[in-house]
Structure prediction request, 502 residues.
Amino acid sequence: MTAIPKKILIVGGGTAGWMAAIHMQDAWGDKGVDVSLIESPGIGIVGVGEGTTPLLHEFYARLDIPESEWMPPCNATYKCGISFPDWSTVEGYETYFHPFFSDLDKSFIQHFWDNCNLRRSGHDIPAHPDDYFVTTALSRQFRSPIPKHKLPDASLYGYHFDAGLMGEFLKKKATERGVTLIQDTITDVKVDRHGNITHVKTEDHGKIKADFFVDCSGFKGLLIRQALGEESISSRDYMFNDSAIAIPTPLKGKDRIMSETISRAMKYGWVWHIPLSNRIGNGYVYSSDYVSKEDAESEFREYLGEDAEGVKALHLHWNPGRLEHHWKNNCVAIGLSQGFLEPLEALMINVIQRSIEGFTEYFEKGGFTDKHCREFNDKVNNFIDGIRDYLQLHYKCNSRDDTDYWRDNRENPNMSPQLAAVLNAWDGDEGIDRVLFENINQQVYQRTSWYCLLAGMGRFPDPTKGTLRLPARNQKRARESSEEQAQHFWPHAEYLEKLYRG
Prediction:
């Protein structure tokens, strides 16, 4: 196959399936490509609260869909970053905020890096990341990332939304733009002697042929795993968590809606709090090796209190890992069929979007060739493995001592050579910036994110040298500047009300 396929069949809906459908229709619909999506009416969609990074903003901008059109039907809110309370027990570093940083932070970012490195060398100076970034101040002040007046260097931001509603919105838009929806159940997948899928059999539509197939069938991987035999590579040695419980609670104080995701450490994992416009999405992510689902739910309900009484819990389970070949023969896997690590840092949408956009880009370079297929798979794997390293760093840096779960995560000897190199450089005298550049090049998280995590957890030696006045003054000035700049942005609840009114 050396050209864009004339007929594409996407198997499975939800966020992944409909993101793939609308993107491919937008990219290839005017080239005579028939994009169809088959979803079974009997298979439900997991509609938990979801968070994203700023990458989703680019996705909707390319589709020319404004926030005023997609956010209200998805109960969406804005996201300035993620806070991490209770992961660390180091005095002064019990919580930190991972911001979305932009040109607005340029004036003081060098001071942040310098203060961290002086603190690493033993100087008794402030080096907490929460003082340096405008989005951190926006979150503290319950503000949106939308400026009241146009700024030359607008802040970056992500979103919170209902994943089920997002899938429904994208379905509506995709079908309006020409994607064919087939509601049916697949009973069999046929593969020829060359390993290519020829067609699927369905209950009501019989045989459905296509040139290329997109597997968005979730964890079961109906095409890529079951039909083509691709096996998952486990990440269990690195990532302990394999389960989650989701319980929504009412939104209180609608005049002060937070613009952050909260990821709070618990006894056997961590809890997310995601503010939607109509409720709070909550979930407890944990490892089944350390606590049963019943005890985890009991701990979670006690933590949530009376707001969770009588609310049904949704239990989820997965095996952390990824595929080696996401694009195999005439099939590409998108979404949970590719694999899943865990919900920390809300990166599944990132993986979906990067995979869809990367696939169309490589296919347009020359269709299905071994070279492009290999390059695509290597790029996706490098992206996911970089995410794995950054996620594992959270657990390696924790200083909790209340359960074996936290101690075992901290002392886990299994990590990639890249992550080991970063930790060794941060803890030692080696230049951390050089090591970061060599080990995280072209990955999702760049230098500042690694500094924020390591410094935010208080991973510093005990001070052996005195205070330096200028670094302390720079930190004070950075906080004052970010707090002042935040005043130029809309309060979150007020702007959402304007947006939802249209």
